[in-house]
Amino acid sequence: MAREISEKSAGHIVSITNTETLYHGLHNPVIERHIRTADFSLCDGVGVVVAGWAWGHSVKRVTGPHLQLAASHYGQARKWRHFFYGGKDGVAEQMAERLTARYPELIVCGTYSPPFKALSPEEDQAIVDCINATQPDIVWVGLGLPKQETWIQEHLGRVNATWMIGVGAAFDYHAGTVPWAPPFFQAVGLEWAFRLAREPRLRGRRYGRSLIFVVRAGLEGLLKLRFLRPAFAAATHPSRPGRSAATSSG
């Protein structure tokens, strides 16, 4: 990321991928393309870790909110320019105020909270022109899944930023408008449980389908890697007793 920013190479994206992202990726070709074509697809959820383990992969969690904090800190000395696009009215500005208080050398070159309506091509182009005029290195997009991923895909090649990254709820967390899960919940990957307890109606259905996805992916991975593959290997490469003895006798 740092190299691309130093070279001002535009058009890179990071996919913050959790089980809900993968669910949408299976049903929405735009989201699938976003995940597959991202320069980095980072695991933002314990469900992806579990599914990865079932398929024989060790996956490290890097959540969107933590990535944004790390980039804010790391980018201070490098003069990275950050643009915040998304959130409810005023949230992006609040986030900018709180993050610059935490990181005094952070450069927030602009913020914009789009209206909750379909934009005309002229309105959309005006927003693109506004973003490009600030010459951002990173555009952080907080529109929620799958809207933010769709927006990023539609604006590749139009927004002249090195990186575009959808971080969803990070806007509310860093603005202080929605409580972030306590550090213990974050450390053990239980942010989802904290959010579910706070918003059971909103989160219940989303997490339900994500759980189904994890269980199916996990069982499929375990079945293929732990049972079918060893059985296939045994069937196609049977042991041959006495072969080594015959070889040595000559």
Automatic annotation (TrEMBL):
- Gene Ontology MF terms: hexosyltransferase activity
Give UniProt keywords alphabetically: Glycosyltransferase, Transferase
Q: Which InterPro entries match?
A: WecG_TagA_CpsF
Pfam families according to UniProt: Glyco_tran_WecG (PF03808)
Question: Has the keyword Magnesium been applied to this entry?
Answer: no
Q: What is this protein called?
A: Putative UDP-N-acetyl-D-mannosaminuronic acid transferase
Organism of origin is Methylibium petroleiphilum (strain ATCC BAA-1232 / LMG 22953 / PM1)
